[in-house]
Amino acid sequence: MDMKEIRKLSVVSIKERVVDIRRAIFNINCQRKMDAQSEAAKRLKFLRKDIARLKTELSSRRLARS
């Protein structure tokens, strides 16, 4: 997910997306404990970056309102 897509989302949608990604990270971590997968590690990296992008957009919107 890139910043252009994120900017089009509403605040509620961004928050929902963060929750969904956190659930996905939790599930991947549970799977990794059962068997080591390098693909899961790559997926985690991208999911963490998506959360960072979403939170950055939320904070910039919050600052713009102030």
From TrEMBL:
Keywords: Ribonucleoprotein, Ribosomal protein. It holds the Pfam family Ribosomal_L29. InterPro entries: Ribosomal_uL29 (IPR001854), Ribosomal_uL29_sf (IPR036049). The keyword Ribosomal protein applies. Belongs to the universal ribosomal protein uL29 family. This is Large ribosomal subunit protein uL29. It comes from Candidatus Hydrogenosomobacter endosymbioticus. The lineage of its organism: Bacteria, Pseudomonadati, Pseudomonadota, Alphaproteobacteria, Holosporales. The gene is rpmC.
